[in-house]
Amino acid sequence: MAKRLAPIGVLILLVTFAASAGDIARFVNLGFSPDSRYFMFGQYGILEKASTPWADVSIVDVKANAFVPRGIHKVSSSRQLDPGSDAIGAVFDALEESRVQVAQHRIHHLLTGRMLYILVDGTPAPDTVDFRDFQTGRSYDVTLTQSPAAGEAGASYSLAISVTEKDGKVRAYKAGDPSLRRPGVKAYHMKEILLAPDGASLVFLIQKEEQDSRGNNIRYMVETAGIN
Fold it and tell me: What is the pLDDT of residue 78?
């Protein structure tokens, strides 16, 4: 159980990953629709051995906890980047390719929600976090339970979410599919928890630790849960 920290608006915990070789993606919050029904995010990076950039952007139906049709766009380039360069340009290319879906789902890149929790490099990630949102008076307790990878079948996970309202009423929710094993995934970690602009949904950014011939790669996915 994570320790309850001093009253601050955002709880910050730390995590360290042993990323020998491989490559580490960077996450980009690309915003919600005005009604908070849709959320868009991206990730990008540089392939460790090829030194070439890649990116993908995705639009999620928050209520359904699923990607929208044709909501994922991936780009890559054979152009090698110089040492110290950033691959953020690949995200811009992916956004250009997804402009029809961005307009269709009315994604507003400045509507990024409110961060309740963030994990940054430091110490091992906890499986359980508990924190309070001082703007709403709600308290949250979230536990990530995962099953280790079994041979070629990757690890699976689920989230148990407990929300205590200001008046003391407690409600429980679940997210994730414990039966779904993603090939190549060794472990999952809670990276961020966002409150949608309408305050009615949570978006969990899940960090995936993947194993391939290059080593340990870091990628991202999201889970959503309605809390009203």
Answer: 85
Dump pLDDT digits (tens) for 154-169: 999 999 999 999 999 9
CB under 8 Å, gap of 24 or more: what pairs does 176-181 form?
A: 176/223, 178/145, 178/147, 180/156, 181/147, 181/149, 181/150, 181/153, 181/154, 181/155, 181/156
Q: Is residue 3 predicted with pLDDT exceeding 80?
A: no
- Among the ranges given (9-13, 66-70, 103-107, 213-217), the one the predictor scored with the smallest mean pLDDT: 9-13
For the chain, the structural domain boundaries read: 11-226
